[in-house]
Amino acid sequence: MTGHWREDHLFSLQESLKMYDAVQAGIDDYDREILRKLAEMEREECREQQASKLKNEGKARAIKNRGEEPLRQALYRMSGVDATVIDAIGVGTVEVILSEYGPDLSPCGSKSTRARAYAKGLPSLNLPSLKGRQSQTSSFGFIPVYPVHQAKPG
Q1: Which candidate, 96, 123, 86, places its Cα nearest to that of 108?
Q2: Which of 53, 84, 130, 134 is the most buried (most CB within 10 A)?
Q3: Contact status, residue 121 vs residue 87, Cβ threshold 8 Å
Q4: Residue of higher predicted confidence among 121 and 127
Q5: How many Cβ atoms from other residues are within 10 Å of residue 146's Cβ?
Q6: Contact 55/39 with Cβ under 8 angstroms?
């Protein structure tokens, strides 16, 4: 650095950089462990396979630049589905969906239902009427959907 820097400011900056590097090293350790655990959960039919190249080049470049490609591939081999092909869904979202609902996404409706919803740009949910008092399930079959004014039964 060039300029007129006070010694105490440079010391503080140096210590902050050390802390940042230490935290980043911890995050890298967690990322490696997550990838190792995902490798243990790979489906037999997906071992050694790669998710197909994304059609959206900007999204593919962003995933690569953020270092998320290894995680994207691991999630694909675990679930057999690459949900990142949907423009609004990133690797982090796929990670959350799979952690919440498990690796088997087959209850998500038929391929034709999902394809029609995707073509229309709509989620494949059958939203309940706001007049109804009972919960209804989405087309996922296992996610209860409640109207905004209705509290979840406790």
Answers
A1: 123
A2: 84
A3: no
A4: 121
A5: 15
A6: no
Give the list of residues 6+ apart from residue 93 with CB closer than 8 angstroms, or none: 83
Q: What whole-number distance in Å separates Cα of residue 76 and Cα of residue 106?
A: 14
What is the full DSSP assignment across 21-68?
A: HHHHHHHHHHHHHHHHHHHHT--GGGTT--PPPPS-HHHHHHHHHTT-
* Percent of the chain residues topping a pLDDT of 70: 68
The dihedral region occupied by 84, where left means phi > 0, alpha psi between -120 and 50, and beta the remainder, is alpha
Among the listed residues 107, 94, 102, 108, the one whose alpha carbon sits nearest the alpha carbon of residue 41: 102
d(CA 84, CA 59): 9
pLDDT digit string, tens, across residues 77-88: 999 889 999 888
